[in-house]
Amino acid sequence: MSASGGPSGFIHRFIPAKEADSPLALLLLHGTGGDETDLLELGRQLAPGAALLSPRGKVLENGLPRYFRRLAEGVFDLEDLRVRTHELADFVETAAQRNRLASDRIIAVGFSNGANIAASVLLLRPLVLAGAVLFRPMVPLVPDPMPNLHGKPVLLAAGRRDPIVSPEETERLRRLLVQAGANVTVHWAQAAHGLTPADIDAARAWLEGWETASGHRGRGQDAKERHT
Ligand code: MLT
User: Fold this and answer.
1) How far, in Å, from the CA of 30 to the mean position of ligand 1?
2) Dihedral sign, CA of 91, 94, 95, 101?
3) pLDDT at 221
4) 70-72 and 75-76 as β-strands: parallel, antiparallel, unpaired?
5) What would the DSSP string read from start to end of 12-44?
6) Which one of 71, 119, 210, 212 is separated from 82 by 20 to 30 angstroms, measured CA to CA?
7) Does the active-site annotation cover 112?
8) Of the residues 22, 77, 103, 193, which is catalytic?
9) CB–CB of 208/180 below 8 Å?
10) Residue 116 has what pLDDT?
């Protein structure tokens, strides 16, 4: 396990795959106030054999780590977001090369602010990730030009009672990703902004499906919805 500043100066944890031929590496991205250790246990629960790469956000908001600056709750500093997105994408590329992780095996797992930067990486640097599990995400930005996300699986895990992310916001993000060609699944939990066991079960099942398909999921563009 490593925990140094490492490439691009991100403090991070890297845990190699338990099985050398594991098809999966998870890029773990914490919420506001989290750090590089926050989602390690979640990563283990979601994919026990996978490699885990977990960087700490470099922006401090009242001392709390985040991945990019915001002007208010849900109002993002778009210039900073773009710069930080490319910085994170460069870090992931360098760490992937160093640790021999194929980019078509790297799935981001982000919560809240981490989900928002993961969505931003998908939209601005689509080649860096094979797909993403986004817990309580918002639309980070609307890219121009649109990326080509054909064949990339994305799980949006939303909370019906989330006071921060409205159902309309989840629908906006779903539409944006589908428009770019991603294969989007929306999972609705009877929950607020925090994660529940139902979210974790849904993400685990979704990842198992991805592993079974060995990253070669269908290119369907229609979003599927499941409800708990
Ligand atoms: C964000 O700033 O990324 C979102 O508002 C989620 C949060 O961190 O509260």
Assistant:
1) 11
2) positive
3) 31
4) antiparallel
5) EEEE--SSTT-S-EEEEE--TT--TTTTHHHHH
6) 210
7) yes
8) 193
9) no
10) 98
Q: What is the DSSP code string of 46-96?
A: H-TTSEEEEEPP-EEETTEEESS-EEETTEE-HHHHHHHHHHHHHHHHHHH
Chain center to CA of 81: 15
Strands 106-111 and 131-135: parallel
Ligand 1 site, CB within 6 A:
31-32, 70, 73-74, 112-113, 116, 164
Q: 8, 112, 120, 187: which is the annotated catalytic residue?
A: 112
Q: How far is the CA of 180 from the centre of ligand 1 (A)?
A: 23
Spatial CB neighbours of 209, under 8 Å, sequence gap ≥ 6:
217
What tokens were used for 218?
């269908």
pLDDT value for 81: 98
Ligand 1 geometric centre to CA of 98 (Å): 31
Query: Residue written as tokens 């506001």?
Result: 32
- Alpha-carbon distances, residue 19 vs 39, 45, 48, 55, 79 (angstroms): 20, 15, 10, 22, 40
Residue 70 Cα: closest atom of ligand 1: 2
Ligand 1 centroid distance, CA of 34 (Å): 12
The rounded average pLDDT for each run of 10 residues, N- to C-terminus, in the chain (228 residues) is 60 90 88 98 95 97 98 96 98 95 94 98 97 98 97 96 97 98 97 98 95 49 41
Q: Give the pLDDT of residue 219.
A: 30
Whether residue 22 lies in the annotated active site = no
128/107 Cα distance (integer angstroms): 9
